[in-house]
Design a protein that fits this description.
59% of the residues lie in helices and 3% in strands. It has 847 residues and is mainly alpha-helical. Strands 1-3-4-2-5 form a five-stranded mixed β-sheet. Helix 24 runs antiparallel to helix 25, helix 24 packs parallel to helix 26 and helix 26 packs antiparallel against helix 29. The two termini are 27 Å apart. Belongs to the PIGG/PIGN/PIGO family. PIGN subfamily.
């Protein structure tokens, strides 16, 4: 099993790394011939102002008194230059925004390997192509261009007084700089000015996606070569901004990234046509270089060119565009150049993704082979389908070995003659040994198929349909949280399907109630949008009320160990009460802008640390230990909560308690014998391996339930695939000074608390149903790998960083699920089975 785990780790590492070769390679091209417009430029110098994170509406709108916040900019719009809205593209982040402005290309997705902080491939920009450049600004932006935050918005949010007042500061600073520059150059009329923004910002202080508040940025330009203001009587746009901003009589000219805004230029039609022609030739040169690189790396009979832009069509368009310019048909020339640009961009995308299908097929073959092998391992070692098959691995036939060696040699030779990167060898050769291992188990496959034929076809099809439906619900829940609600409602119907409703009505009613109650959470908004501290206090109060009920039962019992348990229970209740106090007092202290009280900070860290120790002091009886874990970890979770999510672990834990009892009732109904009632079971470190049994079909459902509850623990109150889903207010009981690693660790711990609660409950399920951890691991591996194959095809290399990062995160989550499961299963095993004794020797607990 250890060897299988190590090999599985390596295989999954390859599968994970493959997405960066398939989806995240740099689209940038080098080696093009520089292109210049043959006519002299109207300006000698350009001054570019970029207000990081400035929204268009916040700049252009008037305040509550009808006055502008930016009088200098407003005066330019009305008397000196041209204005509009710049429709930026996702990702709406600082680095790609500045690169698009200054270097002229969209996001290089290979930057994901650099954490979106710098571009991994060198590029040209206006800065390194200019004779002299002077730059002032944030170090994390300027350093990107030296090689060849918008803090106000994040802190106070765009609707705040601080954010809006900051616009006045920017406006006054620009006025001073412009005056100084004009005086220095003697007002020679050869300076062009541009004022814009790299991206906007949402009302809650985030950016990165495609919301209009993030993509609509201001664009104001004036000076040499720029048109003066144009008065108009009416304008048609899809929004109502002009009337809101009182700018309906000044011509608004919106611009989109990637298109030369010729309507802004105060120059001749010839200059505009020549500029557009140069732009088209620049992009066509990139297309030619990309095509040549791909053509030289592929065997001639395997190469398929981009048919929409053949060499003859390139020459024809260029020749016709130049002819239009000579005939002074400038509008026709500009239109033809735009057509060429669009075709060249499509061709660049075609050659950039040329190998994607080939590599994807090989990774899919590896995925399917690995999942098949894990399935055969379960069938051979943990089921009764192949009782006649030896558990020992037989020596493979000579013909089979030679056949796969030959296939491997042919694949390697094919890659060698095409001069493929070394990573291609891994992706293409990995399926060979995996499928060799699968075919070695031919006898197992044969016996399993024979066993399946004994099932009625309709029953077999029903099982397959339910399994497929369950997998699809899990996959969809990563994108649509309400699918978790649908799944939990289906879970609530389980007692009626299995006749448990007749056998155990009270337990079944509890299962239905808590399943439906938990189903409410995925329908709630993502945590962090609307904090409500009173819901956190309410959740703590419910936990205290539940603790009082347990406390009453403890007081009725009379022995020394119960007295120790009573003291522990009282201490845990005190921790809950302290957590409620800290949350309430910290919230009010921050509202008064008095900061985080030091005493509150100390108490918070002590409660967090004690949550690991206190459960180990409780008895190892099943329900008492699980309840102790709930109390200890709920006290820590309350400190990290800002709203309704504080109720989530409590409801989830209640459902887990009921699940344990439901599984034992199910096992009894199926005729499997068990030794004790669930109320008298004890967690123990020394499990009797001989008690483990073969797997039944119902165990697949148990494994699916586990995966579903784990996914619910992840996505029940938000989208853990993005840090943007969480409000930094979650960690304010622990620290308020910005510390990304510590804050990230605390938020990750908040995510893991419900996860560990599920794992602790499943420790009890394993105990009550005599289920082997090894077989469980293999079943979860298969389910997660099937899900991972879905997400492999859903990885995105376009859109916002949020969308790209989320698609990667989904893939990573399911790929690492089995690894995380093993680690947290170890933590859950520690929390449930270990016992710390404060007095005397440890008390033994035997099954």
């Amino acid at each position: 099993m250890l060897l299988f785990f190590i090999l599985g780790l390596l295989v999954h590492f390859v599968f994970f790394g493959s997405i960066f070769d398939i989806y995240f390679t740099s689209p940038l091209v080098h080696g093009m011939t520089p292109q210049l417009t043959p006519l002299p430029p109207p300006a000698k110098r350009l001054v570019l102002f970029v207000a990081d994170g400035l929204r268009a509406d916040t700049l252009y709108e008037l305040d509550e008194n009808g006055n502008t916040r930016a009088p200098f900019i407003r005066n330019i719009i009305m008397h000196e230059g041209s204005w509009g809205i710049s429709h930026t593209r996702v990702p709406t982040e600082s680095r790609p925004g500045h690169v698009a402005l200054i270097a002229g290309f969209y996001e290089d997705v290979s930057a994901v390997a650099k954490g979106w902080k710098e571009n991994p491939v060198g590029f040209d920009s206006l800065i390194n192509e200019s004779r002299y450049t002077w730059s002032w600004g944030s170090p994390d932006i300027l350093t990107m261009f030296a090689k060849g935050i918008d803090t106000n918005g994040h802190a106070h949010r765009p609707t705040s007084r601080e954010y809006k007042d900051n616009i006045k500061v920017v406006d006054e600073g620009m006025k001073e700089i412009v005056s100084m520059l004009e005086d220095f150059y003697g007002n020679d009329g050869k300076t062009a000015f541009i004022f814009t923004s790299d991206h906007g910002m949402t009302d809650w202080g985030f950016h990165g996606a495609g919301h209009p508040s993030e993509t609509l940025t201001p664009f104001v330009t004036w000076g040499a070569g720029i048109k003066y203001p144009q008065r108009v009587s009416a304008q048609k746009f899809d929004d109502a901004f002009l009337k809101e901003w009182k700018l309906e009589n000044w011509k608004r000219q919106d611009i989109h990234q990637g298109i030369l805004p010729v309507d802004y230029l105060n120059n001749t039609d010839l200059f505009k046509a020549e500029s557009m022609f140069t732009n088209a030739v620049q992009i066509l040169e990139q297309f030619k270089v990309k095509m040549t690189q791909k053509k030289e790396a592929i065997l001639p009979f395997f190469f398929t060119p981009f048919k929409l832009l053949s060499e003859s069509k390139q020459l024809n368009i260029l020749r016709k565009a130049r002819s239009y310019i000579k005939q002074r048909k400038y509008d026709e020339a500009v239109s033809l150049c735009k057509e060429l640009i669009q075709l060249a961009l499509k061709g660049l995308s075609y050659y950039h993704t040329y190998d994607r299908f080939f590599l994807g097929i090989n990774v899919v073959l590896g995925f399917v082979g690995w999942t098949s092998y894990a399935s055969l391992l379960i069938i051979r070692s943990h089921s009764s389908f192949t009782r006649g098959v030896s558990k020992e691995v037989k020596k493979p036939s000579h013909l089979l070995s030679c056949s796969f060696i030959a296939v491997g040699v042919l694949v390697a030779f094919f890659l060698l003659i095409q001069d493929c990167p070394w990573t291609y060898y891994i992706y293409c050769l990995l399926p060979v040994p995996i499928w060799y291992a699968v075919l070695r188990e031919f006898q197992v496959i044969q016996d399993f198929v024979i066993s399946l034929l004994t099932f009625p076809p309709s029953q077999l099809a029903g099982y397959l349909f339910i399994f497929t439906l369950g997998i699809e619900v899990l996959v969809l829940s990563f994108f649509y949280r309400y699918m978790l609600t649908a799944g939990l409602i289906a879970f609530a119907c389980w007692p009626f399907i299995t006749q448990l409703w007749i056998r155990a009505k009270s337990i079944s009613l509890s299962w239905i109630f808590f399943s439906l109650l938990l189903a409410v959470f995925p329908l709630m908004p993502v945590v962090g949008r609307k904090p409500d501290i009173f819901l956190v206090i309410g959740a703590g109060s419910l936990v205290l009320l539940l603790s009082l009920c347990v406390l009453t039962s403890l007081i009725k019992r009379k022995d020394r160990f119960i007295n120790e348990e009573l003291l522990l229970h009282l201490f845990q209740m005190l921790s809950i009460a302290l957590s409620m106090y800290v949350v309430y007092s910290t919230h009010h202290s921050l509202l008064k802008k008095q900061g985080l009280p030091f005493l509150n900070q100390i108490i918070s860290w002590i409660i967090l640390a004690s949550s690991f120790v206190l459960p180990l002091l409780s008895p190892t009886s099943l329900f008492e230990r699980l309840f102790s874990i709930l109390l200890s970890w709920m006290s820590a979770y309350l400190l990290l909560s800002t709203g309704y999510e504080a109720l989530f672990p409590l409801v989830l834990s209640c459902l887990m308690f009921v699940w344990i009892q439901m599984e034992q009732e199910t096992l009894q109904q199926s005729g499997v014998s068990y030794r004790q009632k669930v109320t008298s079971l004890q967690f123990t470190c020394n499990l009797d391996i001989t008690q483990f049994r073969h797997l039944y079909l119902d165990d697949i459902r148990r494994a699916f339930f586990l995966v579903f509850f784990l996914v619910t623990a992840f996505f029940g109150t938000g989208n853990i695939a993005s840090v943007n889903s969480f409000d930094l207010a979650s960690v304010y009981c622990f620290l308020t000074v910005f510390s990304p690693y510590m804050m990230g660790a605390l938020m990750m711990w908040k995510i893991l608390i419900p996860f560990v609660l599920v794992m602790c409950a499943f420790e009890a399920v394993q105990l009550t149903t005599q289920l082997s951890s090894k077989s469980l691991f293999l079943m979860v591996l298969i389910i997660s790998d099937i899900m991972a194959l879905h997400f492999f095809f859903l990885v995105k290399d376009y859109g916002s960083w949020l969308e790209i990062g989320t698609s990667i995160s989904h893939y990573v989550i399911v790929m690492s699920m089995t690894i995380v499961l093993m680690l947290l299963n170890g933590l859950a095993h520690l929390l449930t089975t270990k016992k710390l004794e404060l007095y005397g020797k440890s008390k033994s607990h035997l099954i």
